Amino acid sequence: MSYTINAQTRTEIGKGSSRRLRHAGQVPAVIYGAGQEPVSIKFAHKDIINIQLNDNFYTTDLTIVLDGKEIKVRVQAVQRHAFKPMIEHVDFKFA
Q1: Which runs of E-coded beta strand occur in the chain?
Q2: Which ranges in 1-95 belong to alpha helices (H)?
Q3: Which DSSP category does 12 fall into?
Q4: What is the per-residue pLDDT for 34?
Q5: CB 3.0-4.6 Å disulfide test: which of 43, 52, 63, 91 passes with 76?
Q6: Are 41 and 94 in contact (CB under 8 A)?
């Protein structure tokens, strides 16, 4: 099964801007990997909350559509809220 997430590039970086994103129903994330510059992104929380419940979400390549370009990634780390069913941040690695 393949998963596709539509994302936008993040221009504001930091704790305050990340909190504003979460409050607006967005998830801050980063894509990084060897030999490439890290890319800060954001996407809708509703796009990931249900697909992250599947086990193969963490082991297969995902497709992130960033500004019309498809990027293959793998999930490296997911930060969840302590008691709410919310994703707070996701680290992706270039596949």
Answers
A1: 3-9, 26-33, 36-44, 62-66, 69-80, 87-94
A2: 15-23
A3: -
A4: 85
A5: 91
A6: no
pLDDT for the residue numbered 18: 94
Asked if residue 62 lies in contact with residue 42, where contact means CB atoms within 8 angstroms, the answer is no
CB under 8 Å, gap of 24 or more: what pairs does 56-59 form?
56/1, 57/3
pLDDT digits (tens, 9 = 90+) for 18-29: 999 999 999 999
Mean pLDDT value across the chain: 93
On the question of pLDDT at 67 being above 90, the answer is no
CA distances from 41 to 6, 29, 31 (A): 10, 5, 8
Distance CA 38, CA 94 (A): 10
Structure tokens at 72: 């293959």
The CA radius of gyration of the chain, in Å to the nearest whole number, is 13
